[in-house]
Amino acid sequence: MVDPCKPEPSVVIIGAGIAGLSAAQRLVQCGISNFTILEATDRPGGRIHSCWLGDVIAEMGCQYIEGACIGNPVYNLAAQEGLLKLPMKRTDPLKGMFCTSDGRAVGNSISMMAFHVFKQIESEAASLFHIGCGKEHGSLQNFFKWKDSTGMNVYLAHKFLNGLNGFKRDVKRPKTIRAPGGPQHIRIQQELQKFPEEHRYDASRIMYGLTNILRTKLGADLSQVSADNFGSEIEIPGGDVGVPLGFVGVLSPLMKELPDLGSLWVSSGGERYRAGIRDPEPWCSAAMEREYCADYVIITVSLGVLKEHGEKNVLSRLTSQQNGGDKKFRLRSRRKPGLREDFLGVVGRRQVRLVSDTGQENRLHQGRVEEVEGSKHVLCAFISGPEAVVMEHASDEEVAEGVTKVLRQFTGDASLPYPSTVLRSKWASDPYFCGSYSYMNMQSNIGHQCDLSCPVPGSCDPVPPILLFAGEATCAGHHSTVHGARLSGIREAERILQLTKKYSGPPPKDCA
């Protein structure tokens, strides 16, 4: 707690996502309520966005609490609000079936064998971060298999929508990043040789399909993801659990602790922010050029916004480390179209994972489709990478026809109906997000995450920190997670609290 007899510093928080709300909550808990939250959209939550689709809650953003235990601050929020009922339904990676592009479900025994072998290879890739050893292992693509993935994303996007109402769009072909070959780059091929010859074909489909599912989870082509940093994320035990009444419910305990939102909540009316440092104090301007002067500014915008607009709109002064960090750390593109239709139990086992062989012609299908919890006629499909951006700009009819075509092919059931409703996220084209969540590319490392979290001015400057940075991309070890975003907001609030105690109030004006 700060001394209630001392004056409070003034704080502006840019963004009402969970990072910004967590920072505000922590400030209030410790006696600082002189802050203003600036939010560009018409809702709180940021990339937490729950909405109705038919008779169920659909998650357009974060879907699971990753690590259902008391070591996860987001799990604690959900438990505090009574959102999780016992027994909790954790996701089971073994549930579901693997369907091939020729309309056949792979047998359960082969599926489980291939699945466990792939998970072992994945664990080996994750161990590279902890082993260190000073060697560069290239991309995650190269670790799993020695294949050239040039054009894979673009090919998938065009083939997926090929012939649908004359839909044609130009997408640039991604460059393939390759590293020197070696035994570690052919792990899948090595393991396939251990399978009986009659099972090798199906096992290969499953394992190569699982690399595509991993790609969907990471939100980027594996040729762009660093193998050496793949294991840098700290895994919280407890499994993944959904929030039955909507992930947005975890915001409720944060909102309840804030003062009167009428005086704190300021919608920018869709305008971008500018923030900077000028004599005698930091400033931030939003809609209609209104300026908010404050002692500290906590910036919680996504990495995509920093990369897209940072140099000209958000910050007037950045350290060289941060300028380098936001270029080497990237934001993913991931879409989740929700589909409402009467599938009459076609999914059956809760999840269908689409697998095809390693030939480029069959790379147009990847990822998984699963039933939305609590409904028998709403499905959720996961699409990532450049093809997700293509899907974002397609019409609902094109998406419905494309997804139905894929499901009919992989399930072998030509009678599957078209969905009656399509609901999808559009994070990449939203100027206030510019992507879904961050990943570590081939040029990034943990140091870049730490650089992004450094305040401006830095520790070596004669003036105290003024511009503070929060958000999942700034939380080393927990990037791309909701709990990482929450921890980062608390971290920056704690920084302000420590500075307030140091100066017995706001920072001296002759310093600022």
TrEMBL record:
Identify the residues that the record assigns to the Amine oxidase domain, covering every copy.
Answer: 18-87, 291-497
Instruction: Identify the domain of life.
Output: Eukaryota
Mind telling me which SUPFAM superfamilies this protein's record contains? FAD-linked reductases, C-terminal domain, FAD/NAD(P)-binding domain
Among the GO molecular function terms of this UniProt record, one is: polyamine oxidase activity
Q: By what name is this protein known?
A: Amine oxidase domain-containing protein
Q: What is the lineage of its organism?
A: Eukaryota, Metazoa, Ecdysozoa, Arthropoda, Hexapoda
